[in-house]
Amino acid sequence: MINHIAVIGGGTMGRGIAYTAALAGFEVTLQDISEEAITNAREYIENLLKKNVEKGHIQFHQETEAKKNLSYTTQLHEAVHKTDFVIEAALEIMELKINIFKQLDEFAPAHAILATNTSTMSPTEIAASTKRPEQCIAMHFFNPVHRMKLIEVIRGLDTSDATVEVVKQVAEKMGKETVEVNEFPGFVTSRMNCLIGNEAMNMLMEGVASEEDIDKALKLGLNHPMGPLELADLVGLDSRLRNMEYLYHQLGEKYRPSPLLVKYVKAGRLGRKSGRGFFEYNNK
């Protein structure tokens, strides 16, 4: 039975996963090596709880319980030494994830399941750094976590059926639906999103249409809830570039990152989080 979840990484995805898990009734410890990231994550979660009470999406007692369920730390050992389930939500850098999983394997109890929130990378390769590959899996959440209903569940080569079943139960308790994916670079959603977004960037670079009209065309013509350029801004253009580079390396030419994406990242135009990407944002 899963009672405690440790979330590793206090960025956009980590804090969203921690919020959702705490609201679902799990005890949650959110860990990040940065004190600033922990402070920002706590403020974000508490503001989101307050806002959702004011809007009537949750009850006051749910806000109170979620806050009780949450704890924060900068120490990895403290976060995981008594946990049942770990969700790593660090940057999409394979070396970083492998390093974290080696530590998780050392510090987490033998029964604990180790999940990575990667959107593109190999859970088999990550799991191979541990002595428990059958208990390792990828759990791909979507941003914003508290609103998006899907979790992609990706088996590694050695992931056991029992691990998959527990992950699906955890996802269901969080109010999510799941799709089960056999490991392949990019899984289902990231392969599609990266291709669509990259083509939109190339069309913008070629002068086919403006940012606004490209996004409007896909929203109104193809019934996408969000335009591909707006979505890339939400994900973070640096994150999207890392994903594109990984898929390009793994799957070939059709995933070559748009030169415009590379240029924007070099210029520091990273999307919503920097205040400017393909669109401009008021981050106050």
Please render the helix and strand layout as text.
Elements: E1 4-8, H1 12-23, E2 27-31, H2 35-54, H3 60-69, E3 70-73, H4 76-80, E4 85-88, H5 94-107, E5 113-116, H6 123-127, E6 136-140, E7 150-155, H7 161-173, E8 177-182, H8 189-206, H9 211-221, H10 228-235, H11 237-251, H12 259-266
Parallel strand pairs: 1-2, 1-4, 2-3, 4-5, 5-6, 7-8
Antiparallel strand pairs: 6-7
Helix pairs in contact: 1-2, 2-3, 8-10, 8-11
Domain 3-hydroxyacyl-CoA dehydrogenase C-terminal: 186-281
GO molecular function: NAD+ binding; oxidoreductase activity, acting on the CH-OH group of donors, NAD or NADP as acceptor
Family: Belongs to the 3-hydroxyacyl-CoA dehydrogenase family.
Describe this protein's structure.
NAD(+) binds at residues 9-14, 32, 92, 97, 119, 143, 273. It comes from Neobacillus bataviensis. GO terms for molecular function: NAD+ binding; oxidoreductase activity, acting on the CH-OH group of donors, NAD or NADP as acceptor. This protein has 284 residues and is of the alpha/beta class. It has 2 domains: 4-182, Rossmann fold; 190-272, N-(1-d-carboxylethyl)-l-norvaline Dehydrogenase, domain 2, CATH 1.10.1040.10. 49% of the residues lie in helices and 14% in strands. The chain is built from 12 helices and 8 strands. It has helices spanning 12-23, 35-54, 60-69, 76-80, 94-107, 123-127, 161-173, 189-206, 211-221, 228-235, 237-251, 259-266, and strands at 4-8, 27-31, 70-73, 85-88, 113-116, 136-140, 150-155, 177-182. The protein has an 8-stranded mixed sheet with strand order 3-2-1-4-5-6-7-8, with helices on both faces. β7 (150-155), α7 and β8 (177-182) form a beta-alpha-beta unit. The chain is globular and about 55 Å long. The mean pLDDT is 96.
